[in-house]
Amino acid sequence: MVQMDPECIRLIMISEAPSADLSNYFYKNISASFFQTTMSSFQDAGIEIKTWDDLTSMGIYLTTAIKCPKKDYLVSSRTIKNCAAILQKELSQFPDIRAVMCMGDFAIKAINHIYKVTAGIAPIKPGATYKIRKEIFELNGIRFFPSYTQTGDSFNIEKSKRRMIAEDIKTALSYVQAYGKQKE
C-alpha cells in the first residue's frame, strides 16, 4: 500500500481507464502493467523510478479519468461526465496541485468537463494532441499538459508517442520544480 501526504502532491498524472484486469492497475503492485509502462515513461524521460514511493516523493499521484475498465475502444460522453464527477472528488483531496498531465483523450475530456462545470471554461482547447501538446494551458494556478496515455497495450507500439510522453513528463516536472523554487 502506498503512503502519501495529499499536501505534498503537486503533479497529477491522469491516464484514460483502468485495465480490464484490475491487478494491472497502478497501485496494485510494482509488477502491474500500468506501473511498468509508467516507469518506462519516466525512464524514457531520464528519471529512474522503481516504486510508487519514488513518484510520491516527487509529488506525483497517478489516477485514471474513467473509473471502470473500458468495454470497447470508445467511451460515451455520458460515461466520461459521470466519471469526471468521481475524478473531481478525488482531485479535491490534493490542496496544492500545480500541474495536471492529461494522458490521453479521455483524460483531457474529463478535465475539460470538470472545469466547465466548476469554472465555466475548459482549460484545454480542442485539437489533435500532437498539435496542442506544446501550448500552455493554465487555469486557477494549475498548468495542464495534454499528452498521450502511458498505459495500455498501445504504449509500446508507437515510438513517436513514447518520445512525446517523455518530453511532456520532463516539461511538467520542470514546471513543478520551478514552482517549488519560487515558494522557497
Number of helices: 6
Distance between the termini: 31 Å
Q: Largest sheet, described in full? A: 5 strands, mixed
The structural class is: alpha/beta
Series of secondary-structure elements, N-terminal to C-terminal? EHHEHEHHEEH
Strand order within the widest beta sheet: 2-1-3-5-4
Proportion of residues in helical segments: 40-55%
Main CATH class? Alpha Beta
User: What share of the residues does DSSP label as strand, in percent?
Assistant: 5-15%
CATH superfamily: Uracil-DNA glycosylase-like domain
Radius of gyration: 15 Å
Shape: globular
| CATH T-level fold name | Uracil-DNA Glycosylase, subunit E
State mean pLDDT (0 to 100 scale). Answer: 89
**From the coordinates shown, what is the CATH architecture?**
3-Layer(aba) Sandwich
Q: Strand tally, please?
A: 5
User: Which stretches of 5+ consecutive residues score pLDDT under 50?
Assistant: none
Explain the overall architecture.
This protein is of the alpha/beta class. The protein has one domain: Uracil-DNA glycosylase-like domain (Uracil-DNA Glycosylase, subunit E). Helices cover 42% and strands 13% of the residues. The protein has helices spanning 33-44, 52-57, 77-91, 105-119, 129-132, 159-183; strands spanning 11-15, 60-64, 99-103, 137-139, 142-147. The protein has a 5-stranded mixed beta sheet.
